[in-house]
Structures are given as C-alpha cells and as structure tokens.
Amino acid sequence: MPSALAAEAQRLLDDYLARLDRALRRVPQSQRDEIRVEIESHLRGRLAELPEPVTAADTLDVLYKLGEPESYVPLYLTESYLSQGFQKASPPLLAKGVGRWLGSAALSYLYSFPFFLLYLVSFLLLALGIGKLIAPDDVRVAYTSNKGRNISVAFNYPAESQGLHPSSANSADGDPSTDIQGHELLGSWAVPATLGLGFLMALGATVLLRRMTRRALRRRFED
Amino acid sequence: MALDKWIAQLRKGLLEMGIMLLLREGARYGLEIIQTLEERSGLVITEGTIYPLLGRLKSEGLLEAEWVASDAGHPRKYYRLSAQGRRQLLRMIQHWRGFSAALDQLIAESEEMSYAERAGG
Fold first, then answer.
1. The predicted structure's pLDDT at residue B73
2. Which residue segment(s) compose the domain that A150 sits in?
3. Which residues are CB-neighbours of A109 under 8 A, at least 6 positions away?
4. Where do the domains of chain B lie?
5. Are residues A15 and A101 in the same domain?
6. Which fold has domain B2-120?
7. pTM of the complete model
8. Is the bond preceding residue B75 a cis peptide, omega within 30 degrees?
9. What is the pLDDT of residues A54-64, one digit of tens each?
C-alpha cells in the first residue's frame, strides 16, 4: 500500500522525481528507466516506514538523506564509463570517464572567466575615473576621424607629457608617433560615471561570485 | 575538518567491501543494504551514492540483480553476490586482513617508541 502523503509532502516528492528525470536525461536510455524505478522504490520504501499521514518535514528529511539527483546521477556515468573502460581496456571509454570526473573542475574555470572579465572592465573604469579626477588634462578619451575613425584612451604620464607621447590602448594604426588629438569625449560627467559604473560592476561580480561559491561548497559537502 | 575528510575518504574506500560482505549473507535490495550498513557499519553518508556504486559492481560482474514485485506496491531490485564476486571478496578480505594487521603493528610500535622517548627524555 502506498503511504498517505500530506499534499505538501506529495508536491515535494513530485518535484524531486521531476528533478531526477531532468538529471537522468544524460544517462543512456537503457539504464534510465531502471534507475528511475529503483530510486522511486527507495523513496516509497522510506516514506512507508513513517507514521501517516507523512508530513512535509519528514519527506524533506528522506529526500535530504538520499541527496540531490544532480549530485549522484552523474556518478552513474562516471562509474559506468570507468568500469567499462577498464574491463574492455578501451581508451575512448576511459577518457570519457575521466572527462566526466574532470568536467566539474574544468567547468569551474569556465565559470570564472566572465568574472575575470567583469573585474577587468570595472578596474579599467575605476582607473579612468580616478585618473581623470587627479589629472584631467592627461587622461582623456579622444575621437579622431582623420586616419580612419577610432577612439583612443590616453594616459599621458608627466615624463612623457613634454614630448606628448601618448600610450594608446585602442589605436588602430599602431603608429606610436601619432599624437592623440581630435575631439575629447570625456567631460566633467566622466568622473562620477566611470567611478560609479566601475564600483557597481565590481560589487555585482563579487555578490554573484560569493553566491555561486556558496552553492558549489554546499554541493561538495553533501557528497 | 581534515579529520572529517579523512574519515569520508576511508568510508568511501571501504563501502564497496561493506556492500559485498552484506550480500554474501544473502540477496538484499537497495534500501535494505543502506539500512543494514547504517545499523552495522556506519559506512553510509549520502544514500544516493550507493545506487551508482551497486550499478558499477553489477556491470563489473561482481553482483547480479533481479527485479522482484513486492507487497509494498513498488518493485524492488535485489542484488546478490555472483561467483566472481565471491572470489573477489575473498581476495579483498585477505588484503584487508594483511593491511589491518600491518597497520595495527605499526600503531603498536609507534606507541611503544613514543612512550620510550617520553620515559627517556
């Protein structure tokens, strides 16, 4: 007899099984159904031991002990690829197993790349803002239209400012002797705008990074 | 924290042998294996990891599995040790006894040494 579940408990169970189905999509079709039935049988067995009607808290406890489907379903893949690879001494299968195992590590590097970019851009914006604040005449963004159109960011250091040798970060022609002239794009609004935007981007990246790290840590500890 | 990690690694490594030892006694289904291991060995941490492990032992030919309809309304997958699994388990037990005896000896010797050092110094 299936045990009687409170409405909330039934919803939790259904949600969990839906998540299991999603996680199982990457498992070969031949194994998928058996795994699904076995896990569901485990859950029903656990719930059947509890006093009826089974509450949401009890159900959560049972689900928590079993673990998140996303954390254990990938083990089916790793385990089966590795063991098949060893048994048949098949390099492609072994590589697939090792790949799955390394996958989570590689993925974290991939995830960190956007954060690296975000921090880089926010750092540049802050540098521009602070530079403009300290030396308004030496830090400028200029728009030139003579040799093709390009926008250049220039930081003129005091030592160079006599010879007017600007270092241009975005100069298309690459001729170092070309002076950055042309229309100055940064007005007095540039200081608060670049500082504000740079600060917001750095803050946003930090908040996001912390949230993701916390999630990853929680997952690791549940393994 | 480091100790927790070490214990977790140790459990993980011994889980396979724990499962095979239980199944030497007779066929059992997943939840039964988990509950018995919990009661008798304390080896299980996250229950979900047991099922992929059972799947691998089966695909390696160490276990055999069979679906059985139950009164509870949901079918159960019963695992038993195969002949190959039985032979493998005997070898595992032999190795375990060897390791365990050697480690016990090492512990005893190192304890003696540290006592002697303390008494001498």
1. 79
2. 120-210
3. none
4. 2-120
5. yes
6. Arc Repressor Mutant, subunit A (1.10.10)
7. 0.57
8. no
9. 888 899 999 99
**How many other C-beta atoms are found inside a 10 Å radius of the C-beta of residue A39?**
22
Instruction: Please say if the pLDDT value at position A47 is more than 80.
Output: yes
Q: Compare A179 and A110 and report the one with higher pLDDT.
A: A110
Q: Could you give the CA distance from residue B55 to residue A76 in angstroms, rounded to a whole number?
A: 7
Interface of B with A in 30-69 (CB under 8 A): 30-31, 34, 46-49, 51-53, 55-56, 59-60
> How many contacts (CB atoms, under 8 Å) link A and B?
82
B53 CB neighbours in chain A (<8 A) are 75, 79
ipTM value, please give it.
0.83
Indicate if A125 and A105 belong to the same structural domain. Answer: no
Q: What are phi and psi for residue A219, nearest 5 degrees?
A: -65, -40
Q: Is-contact A201 A121, C-beta < 8 A?
A: yes
Domains in chain A, number: 2
CA atoms lying within 13 Å on the CB side of residue B6: 3
Query: By the CB < 8 Å criterion, does B11 face chain A?
Result: no
- What are A65-110's pLDDT values in tens digits? 999 998 889 888 766 565 555 555 666 666 666 666 666 566 666 7
